[in-house]
Design a protein that fits this description.
Length: 768
């Protein structure tokens, strides 16, 4: 018997056709032979870049630290020319596996990221080929996170061998610590990239340095190691922390450099602490120190925590002059202050990291100063910062505190302008509320002037992104800057245009912008408001307390509902009259649905409000207002007779399809109650229905109002029951909604009889 069988492999392929963007809109980058730092593209940067060099473009790929993300390298494409129609050179995956640099044939190269990936940390390192053409083997190395140990092998079989490492913006502890090397040859260490004049070559190691020269910390966010000789093995600790330095041994030699040595416009701040476990002689000499632009340098030697010698700008030793001091530790602090220049139509962005420890006199060690001279005090943050033309400034005044600061600036052009103009009218009953999910500029026009206010983000950690939203007094980003979203929030005020136009620019879009809403309206009806607060209710359990102080003029609270369709005012105490508008403040008050005396409003609370947005205005006095998102827990129960309130549809007073509501009101528990109500207004056009239902002894009784059964407005009706339900349905019809006043009163025999008769008559009438 012969048995034949076949083994078949099946491959299931899932794919999607993705077209090129409709327009070729790259970010342009220039490379120069004189540059000491390479340019670095990230996976979460621009999707399309064109690079121009003086000679040719060299590319080295640094892979993601996590091997599960290597496949994303296939989505980074390189074209040998000025656009995506040029010859295709290959993907980042192919270049990385070759362990060499890829070089353009001409002086331009196009890089396209098919997918932007915020969580994938691969990098494309770009350099002028004239500086790197002698390197035969070139690899990008991703060692991992803080304290990860990384081993690297370099050989010189075909010529000089190099590797580049990179720490992206946003990681505070720039650099790595080389713990040792073995083999033969000379290892050149550059802060930045390889240069022909080697001015940023900070150290050359041979095997003779293996004992006294290591460990050695190499600062900066990009470093290049070049082997000249035969072969060497290196071991390094990536991103070693400075907080707890290991004790050094007697005979150790090394150097200390600032984070971006020789680079203008970048953070040079560095704090180094070198200690030994016994008294020793510290010998040091200052090779270079740029003390221009208010830079400061401090060198201190300690003995058992007491300062033995202290040097600063006033008494620094002469360059190359060797100083010897006995002690057990040495600290070096270097900081620089200077402008970060920004051209018109561009912005600068960076992730600022400040870590302050030790003694402080209470003043901020770091200040962010924008182009208008407005300051923001910083003690310890890890947040994004943005500057626009003409410049911004980071001012550092550490005093006695130990301050660590790091940032790396990127310059980008303003995003494009939306073609549509957002319009706000003086007679609007609702403001314009919007957010954007892409980097974009938007123009707003008004009948008189444009007012901008803010509803803050839900999470405090997202407030930092408001620095990246800019407001301009005119029709473009070239107009006078009114401020940022963060300044608008912190000022609890409104930005107002001098004319009829305002422009808002979202410089960069993180996910957090989804939780931030900006409110635009015509200024005429709100020009007397001196303070604005805001709140967005997302969940039924959201609650907040607001302090409204109108001693200097009227103050306003604006609320939005996102995921909820109602909010409940649970408490109002203090003094003054609180007006509640369904929408925005209006001169004629057509959408003013109720007012409260803060001194005497217990029987009117809790009170439910449907729809979004709403504006609460206190015109005098000082009051505390509590608002919650839960309906049944906070609104439905009635604690005592005499409770009064209103029920208004979601967009009452405005022609809208968003009027539908459904609400329950309970009587007093275990007591006979009567729902006493009258209808002020109801726009019961054909198709719209208002139902009032009562539950009594297990039965439900319903009164229905519609275009064929209109209510008697402003006349009381009484319905006995344990629970009462009010439902308003527009059924897709545009209408102005309804407003109903109610009171929960104690039942009596006459009231019960009257209520039953009224209910019966209404039901009979409704049936005809």
């Amino acid at each position: 018997m012969k048995l034949l069988f076949f083994l078949c492999s099946y491959v299931f392929l899932s794919y999607a056709d993705i077209a090129h963007p409709s327009t070729f809109s790259p970010v342009y980058t220039n490379l120069a032979i004189a540059d000491t730092d390479p340019k670095v593209l990230t996976f979460n940067g621009n999707s399309l870049s064109v690079i121009t060099a003086e000679s040719r473009v060299s590319v080295v790929v640094i892979p993601p630290k996590n091997s599960t993300n290597y496949h994303f390298l296939r989505g980074v494409m390189f074209y040998d020319g000025p656009d995506w129609n040029s010859t295709y050179l290959g993907s980042a995956m192919q270049f990385w596996k070759s362990e060499n640099q890829m070089v353009s044939t001409g002086n331009t190269l196009t890089v396209q990221y098919l997918t932007l990936l915020n969580s994938v940390d691969g990098y494309v390192v770009l350099q002028e080929y004239e500086k790197t053409k002698m390197i035969a083997s070139y690899q990008g190395v991703a060692c991992g996170l803080s304290m990860n140990i990384c081993g690297v092998e370099l050989d010189n079989l075909s010529g000089p061998s190099a590797m580049v490492t990179y720490v992206p913006d946003g990681l505070f502890y720039f650099g790595e610590t080389v713990t040792g090397m073995g083999g033969t040859g000379t290892l050149d260490v550059y802060i930045g990239g390889v240069t022909k004049n080697q001015k940023n070559l900070i150290k050359s190691y041979t095997n003779d340095d293996s004992e006294s020269g290591f460990p050695q910390r190499i600062n900066g966010n990009i470093r290049t190691y070049v082997l000249r000789g035969n072969k060497t093995d290196m071991a390094m600790i990536f991103n070693q922390r400075e907080n707890d330095p290991l004790p050094e041994t007697i005979g150790k030699k090394g150097f200390i450099s600032s984070n971006h040595y020789l680079q203008n416009g970048k953070s040079q701040e560095v704090h180094e602490n070198i200690r030994v476990n016994q008294l020793a002689t510290f010998s040091f000499a200052i090779d270079t120190a740029d003390l221009s632009s208010n830079a400061t340098c401090s060198i201190k030697i300690y003995n058992n925590k007491d300062v033995v010698y202290s040097y600063d700008n006033t008494n620094l030793p002469s360059l190359s002059n060797v100083v010897q001091v006995i002690g057990d530790s040495l600290t070096v602090d270097f900081s620089s202050n200077g402008n970060i220049n920004v051209p018109q139509g561009w912005f600068a962005t960076f992730y600022l990291i400040v870590n302050t420890t030790g003694l402080s006199d209470g003043s901020a060690p770091v200040q962010i100063i924008d182009q208008m001279g407005r300051t923001e005090d910083v003690f310890s943050i890890r947040e994004w910062v943005y500057f626009i033309a003409e410049y911004g400034k980071i001012k550092i005044s550490t005093g006695k505190a130990k301050v660590k600061i790091g940032f790396d600036v990127q310059w980008m052009p303003y995003p494009s302008m939306e073609s549509n103009i957002v319009k706000v009218k003086e007679n609007d009953t609702r403001p314009v509320v919007f957010s954007r999910y892409v980097a974009v500029a938007v123009r707003i026009s008004a009948d008189t002037q444009v007012s901008a206010t803010i509803i803050p983000p839900r999470y405090e950690s997202d407030i930092q992104y408001l620095r990246g939203v800019m407001f301009f007094d005119g029709e473009s980003g070239n107009a006078t800057c009114l401020g940022t979203g963060l300044q608008l929030l912190n000022g609890e005020t409104q930005f107002v245009s001098s004319g009829k136009y305002m422009t808002i620019i979202y410089l960069r879009i993180p996910f957090a912008y989804n939780y931030v809403q900006y409110v635009f309206q015509d200024y005429e009806s709100i020009k007397d408001i001196v303070q604005f607060q805001g709140k967005q209710f997302v969940n039924w359990y959201d609650s907040a307390m607001f302090s409204l102080n109108a001693s200097n003029g009227p103050v306003a609270l604006q609320t939005l509902l996102n995921g909820q369709n109602f909010e409940v005012v649970t408490r109002l105490e203090g003094a003054g009259i609180l007006d509640v508008y369904q929408g925005r403040i209006t001169k004629n008050g057509t959408n003013l649905i109720t007012s409260y005396y803060a001194e005497n409003c217990e029987r009117y609370l809790p009170q439910i409000f449907f729809g979004t947005p709403k504006t609460y205005v206190l015109r005098s006095g000082h009051a505390t207002l509590n608002i919650s998102g839960g309906e049944y827990e906070n609104f439905a129960p009635t604690n005592s007779f005499g409770r009064q309130g209103i029920i208004a549809s979601g967009d009452y007073g405005t022609m809208s399809k968003l009027q539908d509501i459904s609400v329950e009101i309970d009587g007093v528990l275990n007591k006979s109650s009567v729902f006493r109500y009258y209808i002020q207004s109801a726009d019961l056009i054909p198709g719209v229905k208002l139902e009032i239902q009562t539950k009594q002894d297990g039965n439900r009784y319903t009164t229905t109002y519609d275009s064929s059964n209109l209510p008697y407005f402003n006349l009381f009706n009484e319905l006995p029951g344990k629970s009462f339900y009010i439902t308003y349905r527009s059924n897709g019809n545009t209408n102005k909604g309804f407003l109903l006043n109610f009171e929960i009163v104690k039942s009596s025999v006459a009231t019960k009889l009257f209520g039953v008769i009224m209910l019966t008559i209404m039901n009979i009438f409704a049936s005809h």
